[in-house]
């Protein structure tokens, strides 16, 4: 039988890959009833923790748990070393692109992009033109979505350069797995991820203007935001204050937070609110989520914002197509991690091809996220494809298309036992004025529905713990 998808656990000969040897043995030795009981225990733990997210539907926002799968996804040391090199290369180029966008625009002079690409982009922030953040870094926390199609075939599916979420799930998944299966961790030498909050704090502190002991805060829109748990979790883990806009005040181009002891100077803000809501004197005048005068303090160099306003121009799906050329242009290197082939529907020829091959392609909104507003052609009905074709013709510039990748599968515990399910991976890359940091692993998202390629939690996907082995397993295939 010819395998249609790359199997993370098994080689083409059906043999277990060396990285999964201990996992395979564990699964063979553990009764299904035990795994089922452990899964129920995991759900109780997550419910007790209160880690939820909002699903945006026509009936309103519904809070729910993200399903957690108890079978980990495993990468060996060599695989992770390769990914780490590629991630650092890519995020370095993205930051250089952002510095160029808000600076000299050498990439435009070289004819790789046009000013129109930049100036008409919804995420372009004209207020940032000529502003250089600390260390020249714009996207300090990046989440890069990866998919795998073969032994050495990893592709970048998406770059998240604004306010990427999910790291709390990465950390809580590990915590729950260690609690449920301590004997498994005793058998397998897995790289830790627990240092992420400390790495994040070091990264943020490196951005602070000099002269004082830096005060770092996490700025949240509030408890009704879908990612509020993560905001609170990270603030607690870093040992810093979680604040809302009402807690901040700007005086003499400096930012302070209100405390019971009076005003306290703030040097670095890890902001988890969108650009438009940061400062009502610069962006949306009706915003109550940010602080008036915040951007003036930022431009004066008296406070650092992570990520920088305007960083979103680097993660648009239309800009995504140009990242390999950015790497060549800024770094003089060939990309280590490949892009997925992409058709820009604003191009007349590309649009014609996409319309003729809708049953084979995945079509996405260039500004979309979370799996919303997309068409998975092979799994859509003809009626759905025809309706989507009308959208494409009306607004071709709003869409890109990609082939339906054969996403790798990973063993997953489902209702009728263990079965392969499609997965992706979101590692988190930290970039500060003092360098880059990546904890080994990331958030593995899994499509729990049989045959589904959509891993987004908003579309019914779940998550897994991601294990990077401390050393390479001999005989890896």
UniProtKB/TrEMBL annotation:
It comes from the Bacteria. InterPro entries: ATP-dep_Glu-Cys_Ligase-2 (IPR051680), CP_ATPgrasp_2 (IPR025841), UCP005522 (IPR016450). This is Circularly permuted ATP-grasp type 2 domain-containing protein. Residues 72-447 form the Circularly permuted ATP-grasp type domain. It comes from Candidatus Viadribacter manganicus.
């Amino acid at each position: 039988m010819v395998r249609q998808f790359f199997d993370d656990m098994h080689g083409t000969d059906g043999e277990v890959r060396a990285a999964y040897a201990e996992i395979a043995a564990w699964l063979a030795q553990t009764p299904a009833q035990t795994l089922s009981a452990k899964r129920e225990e995991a759900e109780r733990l997550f419910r007790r923790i209160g880690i939820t997210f909002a699903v945006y539907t026509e009936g309103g926002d519904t809070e729910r748990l993200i399903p957690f799968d108890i079978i980990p996804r495993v990468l060996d040391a060599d695989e992770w070393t390769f990914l780490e090199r590629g991630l650092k290369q890519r995020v370095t180029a993205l930051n250089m692109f952002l510095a160029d966008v808000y600076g000299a625009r050498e990439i435009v002079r070289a004819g790789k992009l046009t000013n129109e690409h930049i100036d008409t982009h919804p995420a372009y922030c004209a207020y940032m033109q000529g502003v250089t953040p600390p260390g020249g870094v714009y996207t300090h926390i990046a989440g890069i979505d990866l998919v795998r199609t073969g032994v050495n075939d990893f592709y970048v599916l998406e770059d998240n350069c604004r306010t990427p979420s999910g790291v709390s799930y990465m950390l809580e998944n590990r915590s729950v797995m260690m609690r449920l299966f301590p004997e498994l961790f005793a058998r397998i030498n897995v790289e830790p991820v627990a240092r992420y909050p400390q790495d994040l704090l070091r990264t943020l502190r490196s951005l602070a203007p000099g002269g004082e002991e830096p005060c770092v805060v996490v700025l949240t829109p509030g408890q009704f935001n879908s990612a509020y748990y993560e905001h609170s979790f990270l603030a607690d883990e870093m040992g810093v204050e979680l604040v809302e806009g009402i807690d901040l005040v700007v005086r003499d181009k400096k930012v302070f937070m209100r405390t019971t002891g009076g005003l306290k100077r703030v040097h670095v803000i890890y902001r988890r609110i969108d650009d438009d809501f940061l400062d009502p004197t610069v962006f949306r005048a009706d915003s109550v989520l940010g602080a008036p005068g915040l951007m003036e303090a930022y431009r004066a160099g008296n406070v650092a914002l992570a990520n920088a306003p305007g960083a979103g121009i680097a993660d648009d799906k239309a800009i995504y197509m140009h990242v390999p050329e950015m790497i060549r242009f800024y770094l003089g290197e060939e990309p280590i991690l490949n892009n997925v082939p992409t058709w820009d529907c604003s191009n007349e020829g590309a649009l014609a091809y996409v319309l003729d091959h809708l049953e084979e392609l995945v079509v996405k909104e260039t500004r979309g996220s979370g799996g919303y507003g997309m068409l998975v052609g092979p799994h859509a009905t003809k009626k759905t494809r025809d309706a989507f074709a009308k959208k494409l013709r009306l607004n071709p510039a709003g869409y890109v298309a990609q082939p339906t990748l054969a996403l790798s599968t990973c063993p997953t515990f489902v209702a009728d036992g263990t079965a392969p399910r499609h997965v992706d991976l979101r590692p988190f890359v930290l970039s500060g004025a003092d360098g880059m940091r990546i904890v080994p692993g990331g958030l593995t998202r899994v499509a729990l529905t049989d045959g589904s390629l959509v891993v987004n939690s908003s579309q019914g996907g779940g998550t897994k713990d991601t294990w990077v082995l401390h050393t390479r397993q001999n005989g890896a295939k």
